[in-house]
Structure formats: C-alpha cells, structure tokens
Amino acid sequence: MARKADSAAAEARAAATPPDVDEYLRHLSKERDVSPNTVKAYERDLYDFVAFLGSYYGTAAWTWEGVDRLAMRGFLAHLSRRGAGKRTMARTLSGVRSFYRWMHRNEMVESNPAKAVGAPKQEKYLPGYLDRAQIELLFQMAELRAMEGEFTGVRNLAILELFYSTGMRLSELQGLSRGDLDIVSQQVKVRGKGRKERIVPIGDHAVLALRNYESKRDELLRGAGPKAERSAYFLARTGKRIGVRQVQKVVSAFLAEIDEDAGLSVHSLRHTFATHLLDNGADLRAVQELLGHASISTTQIYTHTSVERLKQVYQKSHPRA
Fold first, then answer.
1. Phi and psi dihedrals of 78, rounded to 5?
2. 152 and 81 in a common domain
3. Most buried of 1, 32, 209, 276 (most Cβ within 10 A)?
4. What is the 8-class DSSP label of residue 30?
C-alpha cells in the first residue's frame, strides 16, 4: 500500500509540473552531461519551486514570465519556514536562476526574477577535522580489526586509508571502479563534480591496505557467482557495489569511537586531509587540485584551520617567541 501511495504521489507531482522543467532536466543530463546527483538536486528544488508557485498564486493561472521578485522572496521565506538552512536556500535560489537563464536563452521568458533577489548571507564556519593524535587512534582501531582477517575489517581499513590519503568525496570513493586504481603507480583516477576527472596520488599506507583488500576482494568474488559487480572496486559482502549509506555507517562508527560529541562525519576525513597538508606547508593551489575544487576560494577555508603551522612559523621566526 505504501508503495502504491508513493507511486501515486510521484505521478501527481509529475502531472503538476510544467513540461519546461522536465525539458530543462533533460538538457542538463543529455547536453551538459551534468552528474546524476546534481540533476536530482535540481529536480527536487524545481519541483519544490513549482509546488510553491501553485499555492502562492492559488487558483489563478500563473506563467514563468509572470513570476516576480515578490514571489521569489516568498519562496525563500517558505524555505526558511520549512527549516532550510542558508546554504540550502542559496543553492535552491541558484538552481532557479540557472533554470531561468536557460529559458531566457531559449526565448521563453524576457527576464529572470531570481536574479533580482539576493541569496541569504551564509555564516562562515570552520570544518570539523581530526588532529594527529585522533588520526593515529583511528587507524590503530581499524588496523586491529583488519588483523582479524575478516573481509569487512580489511575493506573498512582500505576505505579509511583511501579517504585520508586522497581527500576524495564520499560519492567519488563509492563510485570507484576497478580500473580507476593503479596501485603500481600509486594513483587513482577520481570523477568529481560535473564529471570532471583528476588524478590523485595514493600514499604507502593506503597502498598496503588496498593490496590486502584486493586479496580479500578476489576471494569474495570467486564465491559470489555471476551476479557480482566485478567492475566495482569497493564491495559489500554480497558481491555488489557498496552503497553510500553503508560507507557512511562504517566511517561514522569509527569516528564516533574517537569523539562521539564532535559531530565528525565522513566529510571530516576530507577536511582532515586538506588541513594536514596545509599544516605541513603544502601549496594552496596544489591542495585545490587534489581536492578537485573549481575555485581556490573554496580551498582557502582550510587555511583558517592551519593554526598549528602558523604557530610553528612563529616559534621559529620571532626573536622573542
């Protein structure tokens, strides 16, 4: 019954959505080759926007051309009442702007009402990360469990090592295929946002963990049968590609043992990777390339967390330190 209700709700939502939105989503997917996750985010945001316009204008017919700045402000207020954060509101507004730019290029509208509305000012924050002692403790725990020789323990250590060694995103690690890793050359091909590819080196500790995992992976595949996903790199015990939520669960369990109240997440390993590189004097541009950031301003947030390196420079350089 629940599945039928969900299906009916989806059909009702699709029926209430102007075909322009679906055409735009197809444009993103087919012509601009935008990643599936990004297309889903645009789809969700634009469906929310259409639903809001339906309630905002009530029974009156509305058009894209007729949407004005007041309606856009009302939409942002609607998101705020629903508890959306400023980052979510800014992202949603950006999606609506992009949609209107596409319609303007295709001469479907004459103006972009979202352009006249400013995005909410976002609070600056420092990303959570692990210090050196916490990283050592994390890998001590993971190594002890891997030494038991079970598939999951060996795999989980490889996952943690690869996260910390490369700074890749959760979706990037989960989507890795067997051919993306070259352990001999100690590098991995990563497909990031917008399907942009980058090559990232892999450290010695990660290589050792990956070699051990590949041995266990081969054993698992020999008994998994023809339904196994042999092209996927990280596998569940079923022989299928490991899911995003399963990776989150594995990493979060380890991080909770390190500090349950610190609010650490899978993304904290990416923050830790960048922070530790900068602490040891890595060039900001190099860290930008390794992380796959389009803009260096995104990478610069990690300079705020590199207090340790600044203190070391001060101690060495100041005459009366």
1. -60, -45
2. no
3. 209
4. I
- Other residues' Cβ atoms within 10 Å of the Cβ of residue 4: 8
Number of domains in the chain: 2
Q: What single letter denotes the amino acid at residue 143? A: E
Tell me phi and psi for residue 9, to 5 degrees: -65, -40
Structure tokens of 21?
């939105």
Q: Is 320 inside any structural domain?
A: no
CA-CA distance, 98 to 114, in Å (whole number)?
9
Residue 127, domain member (yes or no): no
| Separation of alpha carbons 226 and 263, rounded Å | 41
Q: How far apart are CA 294 and CA 298, in angstroms?
A: 8
**How far is 157 from 134, CA to CA, in rounded Å?**
15
Domain that holds residue 165: 132-315
Q: In a 3-state reduction of DSSP, which class is residue 111?
A: coil
Residue ending a domain, among 91, 116, 141, is 116
Q: Is residue 88 part of a domain?
A: yes
- 3-class secondary-structure state, position 32: coil
Cβ–Cβ under 8 Å, residues 229 and 235: yes
Tell me: do 144 and 53 sit in the same domain. no
Would you please indicate which residues are annotated as catalytic (active-site) residues? 169, 193, 267, 270, 293, 302
* Residues paired with 197 in a beta bridge: 191
Where b means 16+ CB within 10 Å and e means fewer, 298-311 reads: ebebbeebbeebee
pLDDT-flagged residues of the chain (< 50): 1-16
pLDDT at 123: 59
